[in-house]
Design goal:
single chain; alpha/beta; Rossmann fold; 2 domains; 8 helices; 7 strands; 43% helix; oxidoreductase
Length: 269
Amino acid sequence: MDPKSNDPYRVDGKVALVTGAGRADGLGAAIAAALVAGGARVLISDINPGGEDVAASLGSTSTFVRQDVTSEADWERTVAVAVDRFGGLDIVVNNAGIELAGFFADMDVDDFRKQMEVNTTSVFLGIKHAIRTMRPGGAAGRGGAIVNLSSIGGIKGAAGLGAYCGSKGAVRLMTKAAAVECARLKYGIRVNSVHPGLIKTDMGIQTLKAYVKMGLLPNEEIAEKAVASRYPLGLGSVADVANAVRYLASEAGQWQTGAELVVDGGVNA
């Protein structure tokens, strides 16, 4: 007997969409790789055309589509590609996001709106079109799992990251509302959020630079040491977060909905 057949963490035969997966060293690419390793076929989306290279690196079970996650028309088109090319849609990972730092008194309202559009409106659209596609009578119609990437910044505040924290806090509670709604309406769709701590992706490095620019820390070297010292287990990797996403997307997480899975090396504790 194939031991994989008894592994509840496998996602064999599933079709997944991962947004914001266009950077080879980014969190989205790691999530896509973890799902492919688990047996899924994965549609990678990003506004960054570099997603073509990420998809190519994952082999024939992955393909890329360019998507602006703030556009409803792009969501409709992207979901249709998943259904047409792979025959369904079982997993949607709303990973795309940005982090714009700035003190409340100094932040331009247009930057605040951009933060909300990319981090919050995009997740609303992802939830909406995942439900329409996965629920009974939808184009896929076999239920599924939605995993939304929030942050520890969606649980507690941080100086200089007010807009970011607000956007990720909204993702946290939208997740819970969608989870209850899908369960009550018996759609067979689970909705959960993942809350990573600082990971040294390009976004994480930009956050450290922003701390220095705002005068919160004197230089990048001290900033990294200061931040790392707050994590009891040290800083994590993209794989730590990707594995958490795969768990929530798999049958191993079949009784998980509306949950917030914190992956932060203990910093929130």
